[in-house]
Every structure is written in C-alpha cells, then in structure tokens.
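Can't attach files on this board, so I'm pasting raw text. These are the components:
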Amino acid sequence: MGTFQFIGENLPLIWTRTLEHIWLVGISIVIAICTGVPIGILITRSRALADRVLYVAAAVMTIPSIALFGLLIPVLSKIGQGIGFLPAVIALVIYAQLPIIRNTYTAIMNVDPSLREAAVGMGMTFLQRLRHVELPIALPVIINGVRNAVVLNIAVAAIATYIGAGGLGTFISRGISQTDPRQLLTGAIAVSVLAIVADFSLLALRRYLTSPGLRTNP
Amino acid sequence: MIRLDRLTKAFGSVTAVDGVTMDVPSGAVCVLLGPSGCGKTTTMKMINRLITPTSGKIFIDGRDTSTLDAVTLRRSIGYVIQQIGLFPNKTIEDNICVVPDLLGWDRKKSRKRAAELLELVNLDPSVFLRRYPKELSGGQQQRVGVVRALAADPPVLLMDEPFGAIDPINREVIQDEFMKLQAELKKTVVFVSHDIDEAVKMASHIAIFRDGKLIQFDKPDHILANPIDNFVADFVGGDRTLKRLRLVKVADAMQVAPVSVVAGDSLETAVARMEANNHTTIVMVGPRGRARGFLHLNDIRGKGGVVGDHVETLPGLINVNDDLRNAVSAMFSHGVTWLACVDDEGFYKGYVTQRGISQLLGASYRE
Ligand SMILES: Nc1ncnc2c1ncn2[C@@H]1O[C@H](COP(=O)(O)OP(=O)(O)OP(=O)(O)O)[C@@H](O)[C@H]1O
Ligand SMILES: [Mg+2]
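---
Top answer:
Structure tokens for the assembled complex are below.
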C-alpha cells in the first residue's frame, strides 16, 4: 500500500526521471544504430573480419556495467566528463553494439544469394542493392536486434545513476541506501514498465516498416 | 552480334571454360547445352561480367565489353536466373520496373510498360501488378522473371535454365509463350539448358559444351542430323531423327498444289486424275476448296455416278503450321500413310506422306 501511495504522491518526479531515462537510452540507441548497422553491413564483405568484430563485441558485453562505468571514469575525466551523462551514453552505446551488429550481419548474410545475383546481374550498384534489396529484407531482423538493445539498455541505464546520470535508477539507489522499499519498488516497476512499453512499440514499428510481401501471415 | 573470342576462365586448377569462340547473330536464340559442370553458366556470366574472364574477349555489337562500365553493361542486358530471384519486398509492378527505375525512366511510362508486358505472358495486370511474389505460383513467378528482364527493352537477353524449376506441363506452356514473345521482340538470346528437347524447340543455334570446350555450334537440325562426334550423338540421343521432326513444318514437307475433285465430278474424272498423277487416292474439296473427304482408286474403279455419292470421310487432317512430329503422330494414330494438309480455314493445301517425310529426313544425312 505504501508503495502506491509513494507513487501517487511523486508522479511529477517519476515522470521527470522517466524522461531522463528515455532520453539517455534513446540517444544511445540512435548512436548505436548509426554505428552498429554500418559495421554489420561492412563485415558481410569479409568472413574473417566478421568473426573478429563479433568476438570483440561479445567480449565487451561480458564486462559488468558497473565495471565499465568505472573504467570510463579515468578516461573521460581528462576532458572533465568523468561522471554524468556522457560516460553513461558511451557505455550504453557500447552495450547496444552486439545485438545490433550481430542481427544486421546475420540478416544480410541470410538474404537469398540468388536475390543478390539477380540484383547485381540487373545492374545495381552496392548501395542500390543495399537500399532496394538487402536492407528491406533484413529490416525485421535488424529491428529485433534494436529491441534487444533497447531492453538491455533500459536495464543498464538504471545503474547509470551511480555515476550521476539520473534516470529511474535514482529511485532504486535511494531505496537501497535509505532502506526504503517503496522507492526501490517504484524504480523497479517503472523500469519494467518502460522496457515492456518500449519493446511493444518497436514490435509495432517493425510490423509497420516490414513490406507486406515479407510478412509471414498477411 | 555477340562474339566470344577465345574465351577462357580458370577457377584455380579447374578450367571451367576453355578457349570458346563463337558468334551469336542478332535475333538468334543460342542455347548453350551440355552436361552438368561443362561451363555453360560460367560462359553466360562472363557476358554480363558477373564473372571476369581469365583470358579472351567478348564483343557485343563490335564493342569489347571489358572496356564498358559493368553496371551500364548489365542494365543493357536482360538477365533471368533459374531461381527466378524476384525481390520479395517489392510488388510485381516494382519488380518488373527495377531496371527502368535504375535507368531513371519516367514512372508512368515504366508502369504502363509493366502492364503491357504482363499481358503478353497472359497475366492479368489488374490482378497481378499489386501482388507480391509470394502470392504467385512458381510458373507465374517465372513469367514475371522473364518479363522483368525485358522491361527496359534490352537488345540482349541471358537466361540460365529459366524454366528448369517448372513442372513439365507448365514448362511447355511458358516455352511457347516465350517463343511467341521472341518472335515479336527479336532479342539476341543466350539460353542455358541441359534439356535437348528444350534446346531443339527454342534454339536457332545450339552450342554443345563438354569440359569447358565448345564441341559443336550449329543450327539444331544440323546438330541432330550430323553430330560431330560420339559425345554429341549420345548427348542429343538415339532418337535424334525423331527430334528433327519437330523442326520441320508440315508446310515445308507437303506436296503442294495437289489435284482434287468436287462432289459433282464424275467418277471417271476422279479415276482419270488419279491415274494421271500416279495416285491411289484423291481428296474431294467443297465449292470453295475446303477438304471434305476422299476417294480410293480401288473402291471406285469401274463404277458409275458422281464423286459425292462415294466419298469417304478423311481419316485425319493436319494443319500446315503443325510440325512433322504431329503429322507422324496423326498418321500412326489413324493408321494411314498420308494426311491431307489444310490451313487455319480448312482449305486444302497439300498432302504429306510417310515416304515423303522419310526422304526429306534422309536427304540431309546423305548431303
Ligand atoms: N566460383 C567457382 N569457383 C570454383 N569453381 C567453379 C566456380 N564456378 C564454377 N566452377 C566450376 O567450373 C565448372 C563449370 O561450372 P558451371 O557452373 O559453368 O557449369 P554448368 O555447365 O553451368 O553446370 P550446371 O548444368 O550444373 O549448371 C564446374 O566444374 C564448376 O565446379
Ligand atoms: Mg549452370
């Protein structure tokens, strides 16, 4: 009962923290898409390169988030940004790389080679082939990679509060330090709800962006 | 129009294509034929530069293709592959217009052309233009594949076993449609096949490959009549003489301007005409020349009356546009040794005999 009361009394604050959280995750996902998708496309051109890039990306994922934030502090303090928004975004971008790169790579590699042959044989350049054939066909799988990254980042961003990046994690950290289960639960519930809402929104986006010709059940 | 000059391609130690030289004239349908792995696909893909030759040159209309921009070259060459390769994310309309769009054609013009082309292969544009490839049957997809290659009106068409994945009945239909299309469009076509029947049906020229080498390059009838060696003879099959039957039209094998009688002629006239021409039968025609029936010399000799009272129905008729295979088949099924030949309106044009057909086929062996 106490938790609901807390939520009811603190709606404006929860809303502010949620916006901070969305902003943090949103900006890092946009950056991660801008880097991850081109990398995923690039490595389709060389098997050896792909193996290495995916290996490194997977290895980075195993670094605990707290440790990663810690590692960034000395590096970024050199430009006076050791804590706060910037290191949080950088860490989130790094975490989001693997699902996005991996899904982009797999989806494009899985495009039927005869489509590629037809495209090249009809006189498409590399970029035209990407735009007209490979990316539209790979899109649903790439968006699934983004969904994974978003859910993951919503969780990791909750920890970024420890380096002063704000967000819904503040309820959780305060809840722990003040032994206040109301705040703790509020933070946990808000993070979960945000993750679920984001995931379903992206699912809807995938449906909308996928060509009707690719849908399995129209 | 397409000239291959000592074309060679080696993949490591495998020589897939070995010193192939040939000229494919404009408007020809040249079928590359041979067992699996003999280099047909490799030869074809060197024409649109999907594969770079190890040595040798390819000229299209006298221009060395290696000096052209590969992308521009490919847009001027229609390309049909066995797996069809329609883009699943695009509608049929957009699939057909891929090359026109790449070339920056006016959208209205290309969409209009897509509809016209679909009609040429008997697909209703109002039904199919907006559909996606997965909503079409295999045969329909293959038709769209052919139409797509023709959309930008390229002078040259490359087809790699385009009808290989289609069931035999549909394949015949699509082959016929393609031949009709080709009769109208007169593209220069290089067509890969390993089906001799398909080759005989479609080709104006056949190139037979073995182990990357061009063994024989000739008109289908010459290849069937005079295979250059045992490999070619085996490949075209022991029934190659029968296969030649489909290459000859009834009109080219029949005796033309035949004598005939009409219903009102007397039997004496009929007998006299048969004897004058050394025939044992004569066809009776209607007032305007349609084949109506026939008389046999033995049945009417010495009898009186008019032709109309003794005429028998013709056992079988054959259209002058049919090929000799149909004619021979009709002879066998009716148990006769000759057939009256008529045109589309039923007018009596001539007759074919088993003897005549044998002599015609035999003549080219003795040449
Ligand atoms: N990319 C490649 N790398 C290595 N060898 C190849 C390659 N492509 C073709 N070959 C070899 O070259 C030879 C000719 O191949 P090609 O595909 O031209 O044969 P084909 O006549 O089209 O056969 P099929 O009727 O089976 O399609 C084969 O021995 C094949 O194994
Ligand atoms: Mg082949």
